[in-house]
User: Which sequence fits this backbone?
C-alpha cells in the first residue's frame, strides 16, 4: 500500500517543480499560458494524416524541459498515464478508415496514420500542459487566467479542485493503510468491503474539505483566491512569447523537416 | 478596551441530528485575559469555539465580540478580530509553500504585497520558522506544522487568538515552544485543551464544560487543583499537581 503514499508525493511533484528557479520559471505566467494555448491550437490544427509536420513542434517541449531543468522521467511517466485514454480514442481508426497506403511493399489502412497522429498530438498537448504547470504552478496559471478576465468562479473551481485532489488522495492513503494493517493477507480490498470503504472515504473527504473551507473563511477568504502579485510583463517575456509564436507559425506554414532536408542535401540534387 | 471583549449570553446550539451540544452558556472575557476551556470529550468545547467564530450560528442566545454581535452579516468584521488555530494543522495549511500559507490571510484583506511580506516574515520569526518559508507544508514535522498554523493566524494580527488543542500531538520540546509563543501574545487568548498543565501555565482563568453547560468558571489555580470538581467533569488533576509515581511526593491527589 506504500504506492498510495508514493502517489501522494508524486501528486505534489508538479508543485515542487514549479518552485524551481530557471529562465523559463521566471517568464510571466500570462505569456507562458498564451504560448501554451497557441501551441495547443497549432498542434490540433494539423490534418489527420500530417504526422511529419508535427515533428518540429517537439522542439518546443525539448527546449522547455532543458532550459527549465525539469527531470525527464517523472514527466514521461505522467504522459504515459494519459496514453491509454488517447489509444482508446484512436485504436479503432485502422478498421474504420477504408483508404490504404503502401509502405515497403506492405499495404496498410490509412487509419494507422490517423491513429499515430492522434497519439502524437495527444502526447504533445499533454506534455505542453504538464510543462506549463511544472514551470508556472497552478497558482500562476490561475493568476494568468484572472488576467485574461476568466470569471473568478471558474478559476476558483480549478484551484480548489486541484487542492481537493490532494485532500482526497490523503484520505484514501490513510484508509488504505488502516485496511492493509488489519487485513495483512489481502492483496487488495475485498469486494464486500469496497462499497462502505469508498463511502467512508467520501464522507471523510467532505468533512475535511468543509474544515479546510472553514479555515479559509476564518482567514478572510471571500471568494477571491489571491496568490500574490506577479511582476509586470517585461520586454523579455514578450520576446519569448513572440519568438515561439513565430516558430509555431513557421512550423505550421512550412514543412520544416522537408526544408531542412532539402537544404542539407543541397536542394535535392 | 471594550472592543476586545467577548461575551456569550445564554448560548444554545443543537446540531441538525438533534444533539444539543451547547445548552445555555454565558460568560464575559475581558481584554488581555487568557482563558482555558476544558471538559471531557463531547463536552462542547469545539462547538463553543465554532459559535464564537461564527462558523456555526447559535440556535438561540448570542455572542458579541466588542460591540458587534456574531451574525451572518458581521462575519467579515468578527473574523478580522479573531484568529483561530485549528486542532489539525493540515486543515489549515493548504497552499504550496509555508510563505503563501501565512500570506493567505493578509492577501485576502487586499494588503500591499510589501506589507504582506512584512507581516509574514514577522509572524514566521515569532514562531521561529522563518527558515522554512519556502518549504511545502506537507513536508513539515508535526511541531513545524503547528508553528506554521499559528503563524498563519498571527500574520492577520488578530485581537483575539482562539486555539483548539494547540499542544495536541506535539513532542515535549515543540509543546514548550508553543507555550512560550502563546505567552508572548498579549491580547485575549481562548484555548481549549486536554493538556491541563498547559492551561495551568498559560491561562489565569478556566471554564469547565460538561454536557454543553458551564460546570465551573474561575481562577485556573483554584479550579485545576479541585480534584472532586475535575473528576465529576470527567477530568483529572494536571500532572504537575499529582503525586510523583516514583517518590510519592508532591501533588494534592488523594
Assistant:
Amino acid at each position: 500500500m506504500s504506492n498510495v503514499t508514493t502517489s501522494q508525493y508524486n501528486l505534489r511533484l508538479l508543485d515542487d517543480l514549479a518552485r524551481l528557479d530557471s529562465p523559463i520559471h521566471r517568464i510571466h505566467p500570462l505569456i507562458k499560458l498564451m504560448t501554451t494555448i497557441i501551441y495547443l491550437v497549432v498542434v490540433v490544427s494539423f490534418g489527420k494524416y500530417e504526422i511529419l509536420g508535427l515533428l518540429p513542434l517537439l522542439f518546443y517541449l525539448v527546449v522547455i524541459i532543458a532550459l527549465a531543468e525539469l527531470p525527464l522521467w517523472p514527466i514521461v511517466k505522467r504522459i504515459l498515464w494519459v496514453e491509454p485514454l488517447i489509444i482508446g480514442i484512436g485504436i479503432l481508426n485502422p478498421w474504420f478508415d477504408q483508404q490504404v497506403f503502401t509502405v515497403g511493399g506492405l499495404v496498410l489502412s490509412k487509419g494507422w496514420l490517423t491513429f499515430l497522429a492522434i497519439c502524437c498530438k495527444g502526447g504533445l498537448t499533454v506534455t505542453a500542459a504538464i510543462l506549463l504547470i511544472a514551470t508556472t504552478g497552478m497558482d500562476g496559471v490561475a493568476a494568468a487566467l484572472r488576467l485574461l478576465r476568466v470569471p473568478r468562479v471558474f478559476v476558483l473551481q480549478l484551484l480548489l479542485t486541484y487542492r481537493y485532489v490532494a485532500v482526497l488522495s490523503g484520505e484514501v492513503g490513510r484508509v488504505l493503510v488502516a485496511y492493509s494493517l488489519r487485513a495483512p493477507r489481502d492483496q487488495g480490498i475485498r469486494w464486500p468491503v469496497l462499497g462502505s470503504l469508498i463511502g467512508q472515504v467520501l464522507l471523510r473527504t467532505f468533512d475535511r474539505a468543509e474544515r479546510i473551507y472553514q479555515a479559509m473563511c476564518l482567514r478572510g477568504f471571500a471568494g477571491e483566491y489571491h496568490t500574490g502579485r506577479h511582476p509586470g510583463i517585461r520586454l523579455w517575456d514578450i520576446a519569448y512569447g513572440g519568438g515561439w509564436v513565430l516558430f509555431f507559425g513557421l512550423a505550421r506554414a512550412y514543412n520544416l523537416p522537408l526544408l531542412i532536408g532539402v537544404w542539407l542535401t543541397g536542394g535535392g540534387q | 478596551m471594550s472592543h476586545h471583549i467577548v461575551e456569550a449570553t445564554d448560548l444554545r446550539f443543537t446540531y441538525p441530528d438533534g444533539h444539543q451540544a451547547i445548552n445555555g452558556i454565558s460568560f464575559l472575557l475581558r481584554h488581555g485575559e487568557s482563558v482555558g476551556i476544558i471538559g471531557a470529550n463531547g463536552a462542547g468545547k469545539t462547538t463553543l469555539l465554532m459559535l464564537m467564530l461564527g462558523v456555526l450560528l447559535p440556535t438561540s442566545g448570542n455572542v458579541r465580540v466588542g460591540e458587534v454581535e456574531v451574525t451572518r452579516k458581521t462575519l467579515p468584521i468578527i473574523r478580522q478580530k479573531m484568529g483561530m488555530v485549528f486542532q489539525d494543522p493540515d486543515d489549515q495549511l493548504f497552499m504550496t509553500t509555508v510563505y503563501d500559507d501565512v500570506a493567505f490571510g493578509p492577501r485576502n484583506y487586499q494588503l500591499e504585497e510589501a506589507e504582506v511580506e512584512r507581516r509574514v516574515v514577522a509572524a514566521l520569526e515569532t514562531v521561529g520558522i522563518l527558515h522554512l518559508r519556502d518549504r511545502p507544508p506537507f513536508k513539515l514535522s508535526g511541531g513545524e506544522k503547528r508553528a506554521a498554523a499559528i503563524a498563519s493566524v498571527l500574520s492577520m494580527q488578530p485581537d483575539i487568538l482562539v486555539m483548539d488543542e494547540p499542544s495536541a500531538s506535539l513532542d515535549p520540546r515543540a509543546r514548550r515552544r508553543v507555550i512560550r509563543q502563546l505567552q508572548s501574545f498579549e491580547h485575549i487568548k481562548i484555548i481549549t485543551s486536554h493538556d491541563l498543565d498547559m492551561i495551568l501555565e498559560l491561562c489565569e482563568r478556566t471554564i469547565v464544560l460538561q454536557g454543553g453547560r458551564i460546570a465551573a468558571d474561575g481562577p485556573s489555580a483554584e479550579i485545576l487543583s479541585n480534584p472532586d470538581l475535575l473528576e465529576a467533569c470527567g477530568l483529572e488533576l494536571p500532572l504537575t499537581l499529582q503525586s510523583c509515581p516514583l517518590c510519592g511526593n508532591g501533588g494534592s491527589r488523594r
About this structure: Chain A has two domains: 1-150, 151-219.
